[in-house]
Amino acid sequence: MMATEKLMVHAVILAGGRGTRFWPRSRTRTPKQLLNIVGRDTMLQQTIARLKPLIPAERTWTVTNAEQAGAVRKQVPTATRKRVLIEPLGRNTAAAIGLAAIHVRNIARGDALMAVLPADHYIEQPRKFREIMNSALNVASEPERMVVLGIPPTRPETGFGYIERCGEPIEAKGFAVFAVRRFTEKPELKLAQEYTASRNYHWNAGMFFWRASTFLENLKSFLPKTHAALERLAEFIGTRGYERELRAIYPKLQNISVDYAVLEPATCIEGPPRVFVIPAEVGWSDIGSWAAVYQLLAKKSGENVLAGQGHTLDAEGNFLCSPSKFVAAIGVRDLVVVETPDALLVCPRDRAQDVGKIVKWLEAQRRKDLL
Q1: Do 68 and 16 form a contact (C-beta atoms < 8 A)?
Q2: Which of 19, 57, 343, 367 has a 20 to 30 A CA-CA distance from 9?
Q3: 220 falls within a domain
Q4: Are 324 and 309 in contact (CB under 8 A)?
């Protein structure tokens, strides 16, 4: 599976999301990826640190938006700051990755390998993760091949996309690699139960590996207008006219995820497989809510987790986050309590997914002071 030419590896970190389910800590300018949700470092800093032994800072790119760019630059290493790409407005992951691909190609003066990763995921086993990344890059070094990491499901989750693998595994640097049969978005519970039981399905964690040329060629095939617009923009990289052209061109790009735009149609092409999945048991979590934070931090069932000072009496299963105030919790069960200087969240742990609805209400009320 080894390609004959040696390509440099670039990391592309997608850091433009809002993380509304982490309100009141997550705000427009300081979303989830810029917060220390789990551990001392922020999610973005943890993501970059995981890559350091494999990909140096000068080959690490971060794609974000104008509102968050200043905070992102402060958090990334010095050598990474000039690799921060700013989207004038959100156009989903196909456009964001395409923007990064033309910049990677430009700086590499030719082709390069890309590892595309979310900024806000938790990985319990970073060393094993890097080993799997190496395996994925080995497969992706072959032209036309694209690789996605699949998380073996631990429960019938309806909030994730699924990847169905097929055929016999191919070994790449000690890890099994499977061809992808299809992608399925957020199935109903019954179907999710079937997927989990079959062991042929994996959660799609949004971690991708390919050559810059492979991605751009697929973008040309499946999203030709977006590809053409990005190629026009590529002519201005490094010139004074780049920002002007970026603002003019970017709103015209199609607003679609890379899964729908590229990966799904690529699996349908006749001939040898082009899309592959590597099962990755690395202690992954997308940390999608305060309840997920509790599950990561609680060492045993029913434990109270305190982020800050406090004391509990006849209470269990609570997540209490109050950096500036002492919290006393008496006789309460399975609550999430998150305090900031201007807001307080109180909800049952099993309703933590609904925090985003509060953000939508605040938007409708035009409470920009709380967003």
Answers
A1: yes
A2: 19
A3: yes
A4: no
pLDDT digits (tens, 9 = 90+) for 294-340: 999 999 999 999 999 999 999 999 999 999 999 999 999 999 999 99
Q: What DSSP string describes 147-165?
A: EEEEEPPSS--SSS-EEEE
Q: What is the pLDDT of residue 1?
A: 42
Total domains, the chain: 2
DSSP string, 278-297: EE--S-EE---SHHHHHHHH
pLDDT in tens, 186-210: 889 999 999 999 889 999 999 999 9
3-state class of 343 per DSSP?
strand
The SS3 call for residue 307 is: strand
Same domain, 237 and 88: yes
Residue 3 lies in a domain: no
The pTM assigned to this predicted structure is 0.93
Q: Which domain holds residue 364?
A: 297-370
- Is residue 32 located within the same domain as residue 79? yes
